Amino acid sequence: MAITIAITNNKGGIGKTTSAVNIADVLRNIKYKVLMIDMDQQCNATSLYNAKSKDEYTIHDILMNDTDPKEAIQSTFMGDIIPGDELIGQDQSQLMHSPGGYMCLKTKVINKVKDMYDFIIIDTPPSLELAMSASLVCADGVIIPLRADRLSIEGLVRLNKVIMEAKESLNPDLEIYGALLTDYMPNTNLDREVLEGLPEKVKMMGLRSFKTAVRRCQEIKNAQAAGKSLYEFAPKCGAAQDYINVVVELLKIIKGEE
Questions:
Q1: How many Å from the N-terminal Cα to the C-terminal Cα in the chain?
Q2: Of 10, 157, 170, 210, which has the most beta carbons under 10 Å away?
Q3: Domains in the chain, please, with CATH?
Protein backbone atom coordinates (compact mmCIF):
# COMPACT_ATOMS: atom_id res chain seq x y z
CA MET A 1 0.00 0.00 0.00
CA ALA A 2 1.41 3.35 -1.06
CA ILE A 3 2.75 6.00 1.27
CA THR A 4 1.24 9.29 0.09
CA ILE A 5 3.36 12.43 0.38
CA ALA A 6 2.17 15.98 -0.29
CA ILE A 7 4.87 18.44 -1.35
CA THR A 8 3.37 21.73 -0.34
CA ASN A 9 3.85 25.43 0.22
CA ASN A 10 1.48 28.33 -0.31
CA LYS A 11 4.27 30.39 -1.88
CA GLY A 12 5.46 30.01 -5.45
CA GLY A 13 9.07 29.98 -6.61
CA ILE A 14 10.45 27.96 -3.72
CA GLY A 15 11.27 24.72 -5.54
CA LYS A 16 8.05 22.87 -4.75
CA THR A 17 7.53 21.18 -8.10
CA THR A 18 11.26 20.65 -8.61
CA SER A 19 11.41 18.91 -5.23
CA ALA A 20 8.32 16.81 -5.95
CA VAL A 21 9.66 15.65 -9.30
CA ASN A 22 13.19 14.89 -8.11
CA ILE A 23 12.14 13.13 -4.91
CA ALA A 24 9.84 10.96 -7.02
CA ASP A 25 12.68 10.35 -9.48
CA VAL A 26 15.11 9.27 -6.76
CA LEU A 27 12.54 6.87 -5.34
CA ARG A 28 11.89 5.46 -8.81
CA ASN A 29 15.60 5.00 -9.45
CA ILE A 30 15.97 2.92 -6.29
CA LYS A 31 13.23 0.64 -7.61
CA TYR A 32 10.16 1.91 -5.82
CA LYS A 33 6.92 2.13 -7.76
CA VAL A 34 5.97 5.81 -7.75
CA LEU A 35 2.94 7.77 -8.95
CA MET A 36 3.00 11.55 -9.33
CA ILE A 37 -0.30 13.42 -9.01
CA ASP A 38 -0.29 16.98 -10.33
CA MET A 39 -2.82 19.01 -8.34
CA ASP A 40 -1.34 22.35 -9.40
CA GLN A 41 -3.36 24.12 -12.08
CA GLN A 42 -0.09 25.45 -13.52
CA CYS A 43 0.66 21.82 -14.52
CA ASN A 44 4.42 22.20 -14.19
CA ALA A 45 4.95 18.63 -13.01
CA THR A 46 2.88 17.44 -15.96
CA SER A 47 5.15 19.41 -18.29
CA LEU A 48 8.35 18.06 -16.70
CA TYR A 49 7.02 14.52 -17.10
CA ASN A 50 6.26 15.31 -20.75
CA ALA A 51 2.69 14.17 -20.07
CA LYS A 52 -0.39 15.47 -21.87
CA SER A 53 -3.41 17.33 -20.53
CA LYS A 54 -5.24 17.97 -23.80
CA ASP A 55 -7.37 15.16 -25.21
CA GLU A 56 -6.39 12.94 -22.28
CA TYR A 57 -7.98 12.22 -18.92
CA THR A 58 -6.65 14.46 -16.14
CA ILE A 59 -7.07 14.94 -12.42
CA HIS A 60 -9.97 17.27 -13.29
CA ASP A 61 -11.83 14.47 -15.09
CA ILE A 62 -11.40 12.18 -12.09
CA LEU A 63 -12.57 14.68 -9.49
CA MET A 64 -15.39 16.30 -11.50
CA ASN A 65 -16.58 13.48 -13.76
CA ASP A 66 -15.71 10.36 -11.75
CA THR A 67 -13.33 9.05 -14.40
CA ASP A 68 -11.51 5.91 -13.28
CA PRO A 69 -8.07 7.17 -12.11
CA LYS A 70 -6.40 4.13 -13.67
CA GLU A 71 -7.52 5.41 -17.07
CA ALA A 72 -5.83 8.76 -16.40
CA ILE A 73 -2.39 7.43 -15.48
CA GLN A 74 0.22 8.19 -18.13
CA SER A 75 3.55 6.34 -18.20
CA THR A 76 6.48 8.57 -19.22
CA PHE A 77 10.26 8.52 -19.13
CA MET A 78 9.98 10.04 -15.64
CA GLY A 79 7.50 7.43 -14.43
CA ASP A 80 3.74 7.38 -13.92
CA ILE A 81 1.68 10.54 -13.51
CA ILE A 82 -1.92 11.64 -13.30
CA PRO A 83 -1.64 14.91 -15.22
CA GLY A 84 -2.81 18.25 -13.96
CA ASP A 85 -5.41 20.49 -15.55
CA GLU A 86 -5.83 24.27 -15.48
CA LEU A 87 -9.58 23.71 -15.05
CA ILE A 88 -9.04 22.36 -11.53
CA GLY A 89 -8.61 25.91 -10.27
CA GLN A 90 -11.85 27.10 -11.86
CA ASP A 91 -13.95 24.31 -10.34
CA GLN A 92 -12.63 24.38 -6.77
CA SER A 93 -15.76 26.07 -5.46
CA GLN A 94 -17.99 23.41 -7.01
CA LEU A 95 -15.81 20.66 -5.59
CA MET A 96 -15.76 22.21 -2.14
CA HIS A 97 -19.56 22.31 -1.96
CA SER A 98 -20.03 18.81 -3.33
CA PRO A 99 -20.59 15.87 -0.93
CA GLY A 100 -17.27 14.95 0.67
CA GLY A 101 -15.50 17.86 -1.05
CA TYR A 102 -12.34 17.82 1.02
CA MET A 103 -12.22 14.01 0.83
CA CYS A 104 -12.51 13.95 -2.97
CA LEU A 105 -8.86 13.23 -3.75
CA LYS A 106 -8.73 10.44 -1.19
CA THR A 107 -11.97 8.72 -2.17
CA LYS A 108 -11.78 9.20 -5.94
CA VAL A 109 -8.06 8.71 -6.51
CA ILE A 110 -5.83 7.54 -3.66
CA ASN A 111 -8.07 4.75 -2.41
CA LYS A 112 -8.36 3.36 -5.93
CA VAL A 113 -4.64 3.29 -6.86
CA LYS A 114 -2.78 2.96 -3.56
CA ASP A 115 -2.32 -0.79 -3.95
CA MET A 116 -0.50 -0.26 -7.26
CA TYR A 117 2.38 1.83 -5.89
CA ASP A 118 4.91 2.15 -3.08
CA PHE A 119 4.77 5.95 -3.06
CA ILE A 120 2.31 8.55 -4.31
CA ILE A 121 3.73 12.06 -4.56
CA ILE A 122 1.29 14.97 -4.79
CA ASP A 123 2.47 18.29 -6.21
CA THR A 124 0.08 20.76 -4.61
CA PRO A 125 -0.77 24.28 -5.81
CA PRO A 126 0.88 27.36 -4.24
CA SER A 127 -2.30 28.40 -2.47
CA LEU A 128 -4.36 27.56 0.59
CA GLU A 129 -7.47 26.55 -1.35
CA LEU A 130 -9.33 23.25 -1.73
CA ALA A 131 -6.69 21.49 -3.84
CA MET A 132 -4.13 21.87 -1.08
CA SER A 133 -6.56 20.91 1.68
CA ALA A 134 -7.72 17.84 -0.26
CA SER A 135 -4.07 16.84 -0.69
CA LEU A 136 -3.40 17.17 3.03
CA VAL A 137 -6.47 15.15 3.90
CA CYS A 138 -5.28 12.13 1.92
CA ALA A 139 -1.54 12.35 2.67
CA ASP A 140 0.43 10.26 5.11
CA GLY A 141 3.05 12.98 5.35
CA VAL A 142 4.04 16.45 4.18
CA ILE A 143 7.31 17.92 2.93
CA ILE A 144 7.52 21.71 2.95
CA PRO A 145 10.12 23.22 0.59
CA LEU A 146 11.18 26.75 1.43
CA ARG A 147 13.92 29.21 0.54
CA ALA A 148 16.43 30.93 2.80
CA ASP A 149 14.58 34.22 3.10
CA ARG A 150 12.55 35.90 5.81
CA LEU A 151 9.20 35.92 3.98
CA SER A 152 9.44 32.24 3.13
CA ILE A 153 10.06 31.28 6.75
CA GLU A 154 7.40 33.66 8.07
CA GLY A 155 4.91 32.13 5.62
CA LEU A 156 5.60 28.77 7.22
CA VAL A 157 3.58 29.88 10.26
CA ARG A 158 0.40 30.31 8.21
CA LEU A 159 0.97 27.11 6.26
CA ASN A 160 1.58 25.16 9.47
CA LYS A 161 -1.78 26.37 10.77
CA VAL A 162 -3.53 24.98 7.67
CA ILE A 163 -1.70 21.67 8.03
CA MET A 164 -2.64 21.42 11.71
CA GLU A 165 -6.29 22.16 10.89
CA ALA A 166 -6.32 19.33 8.35
CA LYS A 167 -4.70 17.02 10.88
CA GLU A 168 -7.11 17.90 13.68
CA SER A 169 -10.29 17.81 11.61
CA LEU A 170 -9.92 15.15 8.92
CA ASN A 171 -6.53 13.42 8.98
CA PRO A 172 -5.26 12.75 12.52
CA ASP A 173 -2.47 10.48 11.24
CA LEU A 174 -0.91 13.18 9.06
CA GLU A 175 2.82 13.63 9.73
CA ILE A 176 5.04 16.54 8.80
CA TYR A 177 8.17 14.88 7.50
CA GLY A 178 10.04 18.16 7.48
CA ALA A 179 10.82 21.58 6.08
CA LEU A 180 13.28 21.35 3.21
CA LEU A 181 15.59 24.24 2.39
CA THR A 182 15.95 24.64 -1.39
CA ASP A 183 17.95 26.88 -3.71
CA TYR A 184 20.62 26.92 -1.00
CA MET A 185 23.78 28.95 -1.60
CA PRO A 186 26.41 27.80 0.91
CA ASN A 187 28.75 30.64 -0.01
CA THR A 188 26.38 33.31 1.37
CA ASN A 189 26.19 34.24 5.03
CA LEU A 190 22.40 34.59 5.01
CA ASP A 191 21.80 31.09 3.64
CA ARG A 192 24.24 29.54 6.10
CA GLU A 193 22.59 31.40 8.99
CA VAL A 194 19.12 30.26 7.88
CA LEU A 195 20.26 26.65 7.58
CA GLU A 196 21.86 26.74 11.03
CA GLY A 197 18.83 28.38 12.64
CA LEU A 198 16.10 26.45 10.80
CA PRO A 199 15.89 23.42 13.12
CA GLU A 200 15.23 25.64 16.14
CA LYS A 201 12.76 27.88 14.30
CA VAL A 202 10.66 24.98 13.04
CA LYS A 203 10.92 23.15 16.36
CA MET A 204 9.11 26.11 17.96
CA MET A 205 6.23 25.33 15.57
CA GLY A 206 6.30 21.64 16.42
CA LEU A 207 8.01 20.77 13.14
CA ARG A 208 11.29 19.23 12.05
CA SER A 209 13.63 20.13 9.21
CA PHE A 210 15.72 18.03 6.86
CA LYS A 211 19.43 18.08 7.61
CA THR A 212 20.10 18.23 3.89
CA ALA A 213 19.68 21.53 2.04
CA VAL A 214 19.29 21.39 -1.74
CA ARG A 215 21.93 23.57 -3.32
CA ARG A 216 21.22 26.03 -6.12
CA CYS A 217 22.26 24.28 -9.32
CA GLN A 218 22.04 25.37 -12.93
CA GLU A 219 21.91 21.72 -14.01
CA ILE A 220 18.33 21.50 -12.70
CA LYS A 221 17.20 24.09 -15.24
CA ASN A 222 19.39 22.59 -17.93
CA ALA A 223 17.87 19.14 -17.39
CA GLN A 224 14.36 20.58 -17.49
CA ALA A 225 15.11 22.48 -20.70
CA ALA A 226 16.50 19.28 -22.24
CA GLY A 227 13.40 17.33 -21.22
CA LYS A 228 15.44 14.89 -19.19
CA SER A 229 15.57 13.55 -15.66
CA LEU A 230 18.22 15.25 -13.52
CA TYR A 231 19.69 11.81 -12.83
CA GLU A 232 19.97 11.10 -16.53
CA PHE A 233 21.30 14.55 -17.38
CA ALA A 234 23.67 15.37 -14.52
CA PRO A 235 23.69 12.61 -11.87
CA LYS A 236 26.81 13.95 -10.14
CA CYS A 237 25.73 17.57 -9.80
CA GLY A 238 25.22 19.03 -6.34
CA ALA A 239 21.42 19.12 -6.43
CA ALA A 240 21.17 15.53 -7.68
CA GLN A 241 23.28 14.36 -4.78
CA ASP A 242 21.30 16.53 -2.35
CA TYR A 243 17.97 15.04 -3.41
CA ILE A 244 19.43 11.55 -2.95
CA ASN A 245 20.36 12.53 0.61
CA VAL A 246 16.89 14.01 1.16
CA VAL A 247 15.32 10.68 0.18
CA VAL A 248 17.71 8.79 2.48
CA GLU A 249 16.54 11.04 5.32
CA LEU A 250 12.91 10.68 4.27
CA LEU A 251 13.00 6.88 4.32
CA LYS A 252 14.53 6.96 7.81
CA ILE A 253 11.84 9.37 9.01
CA ILE A 254 9.09 7.14 7.61
CA LYS A 255 10.65 4.12 9.32
CA GLY A 256 10.90 6.04 12.61
CA GLU A 257 14.70 6.02 12.58
CA GLU A 258 15.09 9.79 12.65
A1: 22
A2: 210
A3: 3-254 (3.40.50.300)
